[in-house]
Every structure is written in C-alpha cells, then in structure tokens.
Model the fold of this input.
Amino acid sequence: MKDRILSGMRPTGRLHLGNYFGALKNWIELQKTYECFFFIADFHALTTSYESPADIRSNVEEMALDFLAAGIDPGKSTLFLQSLVPTHAEAHLLFSMFTPLAWLERTPSYKEMIETLKDRDLRTYGFLGYPLLQTVDIVLYHPKFVPVGVDQVPHIELCREIVRRFNHLYKSDLPEPQPLLTASPKLPGIDGQKMSKSYNNTIELFGSASETKKRIMSIKTDSTPVGEPKDPAACNVFAILSLLCGDAERKSWEERYRAGGMGYGDVKKALAEKYEEVFGAMRARRDELARDRGAVWEILRKGSARALDISTNHLAAMRRAIGIAY
Ligand code: ADP
Ligand code: TRP
Done:
C-alpha cells in the first residue's frame, strides 16, 4: 500500500515556469512513490473572482491540459475538479459550525490578499473561509502528505488545528496531514520579483516559442559590462537557466559568468534555446491533447467520480461522529 498525497491548484490563468518548477514538476515525480490525488480548485478561484467568473471554465480546461501535457497520468493519479465533487461543499458547511472565526481571521494570507487585491472586495464570507475549504479538501481524503510550497504551510497548520478540534469535539481520530515541502526555489520573474500572475512578470509554461523568446530577452539584468566577471547567483536569467540544465552544463555556465567576456544577451539566447529543448515536445503533446477537449472533460469527470466515491465514505464517518447520520 502506497501512502496517499493530495494537492490542488486554483485555475486563475495560464501556468508559468514558477508553477512548474515550484509545484507541478514535483507532483509528476511524486506519482512514482505515492497514491496521488490532484485537483483543480475552482471553488477557490471563485472566492477571488466571484465578480468575473466568466474565465473559470476555460481556465479549468487549460489547466487540465497543462497538467496532462506536463505528465500527470490519469492512469496513475486521480485528477479531479473540486466543484464536481459535492462532498467538499457539504464538509465545508459542517466544519464551518465549529471553526472559530479568529482562527480564520489571523491566517497570514487573509489580510495580505485583502491588501494586495485592492481592486476587489474580498471581505466576503467565502473568502474568509478559503483556508477552511482547503482544510476539508484535505481531510476528505485522509492523505498522509500535502505537497505544497512554503507559502501554504500556515494553511496546512490551520488544517491540523481544525482536525484536532474535530477529534476533540466528536471523539474521532481523523488523521492530521503533514506538509510535504518541495525543495523548490522561489523562481524570479522577468522583473526579478517572485514570478507570479499577479505581478505580470511570468514566462508561461506553454507560451509560443516567439512570445517566450521575447519574454526571456526582456528579463531584467544588471548593467555589468560584457567584458567583466558576473555573479551567477545574482542573475535572474541564471536562476531559470540552472533549473533547465544538468549539473555539468550549470557548472560550465557558472564558469563563463565568472570569467567575464560573456554578455547577458548570450545567456538569454541560451535560455530561449534550452526552453525549446525542454518544453518544445511537451507543448506539442499539449497541442495534440487540446484537439479533443471532450476527452479532457472525460478524464476530469472520471477522476471526480472516483474522488466522490472516496470522500463520500469519509464524510459519512464525519456525519456519524457529529451525530447526524440518519
Ligand atoms: P501565482 O502566484 O502566479 O498566482 P499560484 O499562487 O496560483 O501562482 O501558485 C500555484 C502553485 O505554484 C503553488 O504551489 C505555488 O507555491 C507555486 N508557485 C507559484 N509561483 C512560484 C514561484 N515563483 N516559484 C516557485 N513556486 C511558485
Ligand atoms: N491554496 C492552494 C494554493 O493557492 C490551493 C489549494 C486549495 C490546495 N485546496 C488545496 C493545496 C488543498 C493543497 C491542498 O496554491
């Protein structure tokens, strides 16, 4: 019996290299070792996009294509869509009864996002409940681990706290999940800040070759003259390039940086070539998959049916523990 893991992503736009190296690539590798549940968190997308939900459907479809093309294998893993699995909504309601407001209000991401996304009114019931919904996403499947980036650790901690409260109140033994931290570095975007959709500084995972090249050529670098030695550790281009190279190639680039005589234009060109080498075939596979969108929905529906099956059993046990199983 393999240990179970579960993780999800919000469908809020096209995936970028930060998402790939920070999460998706790791998920794909974890398929070898674990029984995996991966899902698209469309309810979570709605917590911030409730005023303009028109893009959610296509974002879900594109995200599913990205996952499949990158190597999520529906034959090995359960890939599902959150809102097609109604147990999440019911468990969220049940858990809302005993989750103290203060626990949600003090979640770091809560105040932070209300501050950053000033153009939207996030003082809603649903947005406050974001980490509670994430909690039930997890507890419905009893995973041992939840692979996430460090930014999500407070949410997993809150999940564990809520699980303990459930167990205490209802004399249960729901398992407490552990975060499985990915060693993923925070990938910088083309402006040097963390690569993120919110900063408009991304390089898309499946952008066209020409668009990607343009983005790569516009990565911000310092103004050290071509002839002088440069510090690879301080270079945004190198940060991305080094994730695409093997050890030997990375070392050789480091030497070229330190030796001087190499311009940032050279290394940007090399990065654009490397990107094609690594992601070109994946993009072709995505184009192939995109021709049959019905098949993509079929995979999501099948995965969601399986997720419903498993989560229904766990939810029934929670209802029994609370005392509302009739
Ligand atoms: P964005 O910041 O673009 O909105 P999300 O918050 O939707 O991205 O992140 C989805 C997943 O990708 C998360 O697991 C997150 O930790 C990871 N991730 C996002 N940006 C980066 C980055 N720049 N470096 C590493 N991982 C990242
Ligand atoms: N909040 C997560 C993110 O922004 C997405 C998510 C929703 C999630 N439910 C989850 C991750 C359950 C892990 C487990 O990346």
The two ends are 33 Å apart (CA to CA). The mean pLDDT is 96. Strands lie at 4-9, 35-40, 78-81, 145-148, 178-181.
